[in-house]
Amino acid sequence: MTFASVVPHHIAIVMDGNGRWASKRFLPRLVGHKKGVDSLRRCAKACESRGVGVLTVFAFSSENWNRPAEEVSGLMNLFAVALGREVPELNADGVRLCFVGERANLSKKVIEGIEQAESATAGNSRLILNVCFNYGGRWDIVQAVAKLADLGQPATEQNLNNAMALAHVPDPDLVIRTGGEQRISNFLLWQSAYSEFFFSDHLWPDFDETALDQAITAFSQRERRFGKTSDQLVAQANNPPLV
Ligand code: FPP
User: Fold this and answer.
1) pLDDT per residue over 51-67, tens digit each?
2) Which of 73, 157, 159, 204 could link 15 by a cystine bridge, Cβ 3.0 to 4.6 Å?
3) How far is the CA of 18 from the centre of ligand 1 (A)?
4) Global pTM?
5) In this structure, are residues 146 and 117 in contact, taking their beta carbons and an 8 Å threshold?
6) Count: domains in the chain
């Protein structure tokens, strides 16, 4: 059997469980989301130190607008505040921030925060941190198809790939979902076609370095066949193509 290379180049995470983390402690859900920001900072640092090149996280989905108004405005506010507070340290750590999602219906404050964070960190390359905000996998496919129509390009796999919101990075090798649920919830529908999945029972604020290492270890024991057979992969490993 041919194992995946040990450390995934691109990890994507559905950071689920903030609300339950807070409810278990009789705290408002927003406290769980604040803890979620701490967990994200810790996870980004851990990814960097393990040689992961790209981390993509699901911070606010197209469907999260349907939550109670108080939670939506709390999340928007937390996002704007967290951006201002976190960017200097992320920048010092060599992290390049990219925001992926529909910006049209975001507030001016949030859009300014996003633009400042992207321009402040544009020159960094140790870790690309894609924050999916007001994002949905279906939205991404639809906007890519619309882009191709505007450009008059045929809908080939390559053209669509180039028009997707994550065209600046390779597809995720490993998709992690915390919080015990086992579904994709409109996250990277196109890009996760050949990703390995890992479901963790940890609520997102509790997802620490040990939990990340468990996911990476599980990944390293998977055989990624990309539609081929095991025997083909063994033959390929024994006779690598001459470059
Ligand atoms: C899902 O947990 C989590 C979210 C909808 C928000 C995640 C956002 C953050 C961690 C903050 C990101 C901030 C920045 C600056 C990138 P849930 O509320 O669905 O939890 P539950 O399933 O327990 O209710």
Assistant:
1) 999 999 999 999 999 99
2) 204
3) 5
4) 0.94
5) no
6) 1
